[in-house]
Amino acid sequence: MKTPVLLAVDGPAEAYAPLFSAAKEAGLRIGWLAMNAPVDPPPPLQAPPLLEAFRAVAVGEGRSIAMKPMKGRAILRDLLREHFLGADVVLVTGLALVPRLAARESGWHLTESATASRVYTTEELLVRLRKPSLRWKKD
């Protein structure tokens, strides 16, 4: 499995809307992972028996939502394999990861390590995100 680039982010998804739009146009597949987030099932999956089901899925106009109970804490490697297979980049909230991406008025600030950071335009960032050196390395 080719691992995606994982970028820690802060703030709401709306701050990253220009990146999502540009990436889609460029054929780069970006996902969003909210760790340690409160998770309430959507109305079609809130019935008490469904909360105990092995898996419950709601399907609508071009979207699906899957819900399943978890035993123990979430394992990042497992989440990537289950939900982000084929993703090029995953923006992650709720984890202290490096590299870290921050939205700026003039573009994007990417911190790659304790000693390397730079501001990119959206186009420059899309080029950088395609580089294998940024891909997440399994521990």
Task: Report what the structure shows.
By secondary structure, the protein is of the alpha/beta class. It folds into two domains: 5-35 and 74-134, no CATH class; 40-71, no CATH class. It contains four helices and eight strands; from the N terminus they run E-H-E-H-E-E-H-E-E-E-E-H. The strands form three sheets. The chain has a three-stranded parallel beta sheet, covered by helices on one side. Strands 6-7-8 form a three-stranded antiparallel beta sheet. The chain has a two-stranded antiparallel ribbon with strand order 3-4. A hairpin with a 4-residue loop joins strand 3 (56-59) and strand 4 (64-67). The protein is elongated. It starts with a strand and ends in a 10-residue tail after the last helix. The model has no long low-confidence stretch (mean pLDDT 91).
Shape: elongated
Uncertain parts? none
Sheet-strand content, in percent, reads 25-35%
Number of strands: 8
Indicate the structural class.
Answer: alpha/beta
Q: What is the share of helical residues?
A: 10-25%
Please give the alpha-carbon distance between the first and last residues: 15 Å
Provide the number of structural domains: 2
What is the helix tally? 4
The overall pLDDT average reads 91
- Main β sheet profile: 3 strands, parallel
Give the SSE order as H and E letters: EHEHEEHEEEEH
Q: What's the alpha carbon Rg, rounded to whole Å?
A: 17 Å
**Biggest sheet: strands side by side, in what order?**
1-5-2
